[in-house]
Amino acid sequence: MASKTKVAVFISGRGTNMEALVRSTLAGDCPFEISLVLANKPEAGGLATAQAAGIEALCVDQKPFGKDREAHERAIDAALRSRGIQVIALAGYMRILTPFLVDAWAGRMLNIHPSLLPAYPGLDTHARALAAGEAEAGCTVHLVTAGVDEGPILGQARVPILPGDDEHALALRVLEQEHRLYPETLAAFCLGLG
């Protein structure tokens, strides 16, 4: 069998999408491996989860870099390249990336977003969908480009908005679909690389 694509997962918090990606690698036919989990905050709960799963967990803390986001990303890029990473999967990484990292990993960086893009890019997606009276919500996996949540769409999953839904209830149902969609889409993407 061909070697598996080496993926780094970026997180800023608990990392439930990262956990879903890690679980998917347990299938023998999974075309990728999670080689690194990287966080920008030392308190990110997903770092301990990754370590417990036997995956290298690395924090490149943003604080020492102050407002120099590109310098922070250059440190991240060096860590990725030294480990032979081939693809980045953003999974709740709550930082807007600079053109440096976006360009360096163009076509090899994916993100999952909790809306049916192009609708509701950015934050507060569930509240905005509810306020607009939408009939459905969902999630999107897309390639990362310079614009926030604007890259080419690789996959989507739809979730009906039910009577009485609030942000929390809707977010939980969307998250279930994220945990299914992201591993499937990342696997298809990695198979297409080579």
UniProtKB/TrEMBL annotation:
It comes from Caulobacter henricii. It catalyses: N(1)-(5-phospho-beta-D-ribosyl)glycinamide + (6R)-10-formyltetrahydrofolate = N(2)-formyl-N(1)-(5-phospho-beta-D-ribosyl)glycinamide + (6S)-5,6,7,8-tetrahydrofolate + H(+). N(1)-(5-phospho-beta-D-ribosyl)glycinamide binds at G15, T16, N17. Catalyzes the transfer of a formyl group from 10-formyltetrahydrofolate to 5-phospho-ribosyl-glycinamide (GAR), producing 5-phospho-ribosyl-N-formylglycinamide (FGAR) and tetrahydrofolate. This is Phosphoribosylglycinamide formyltransferase. Keywords: Purine biosynthesis, Transferase. GO terms for cellular component: cytosol. Belongs to the GART family. Coiled coil: none annotated.
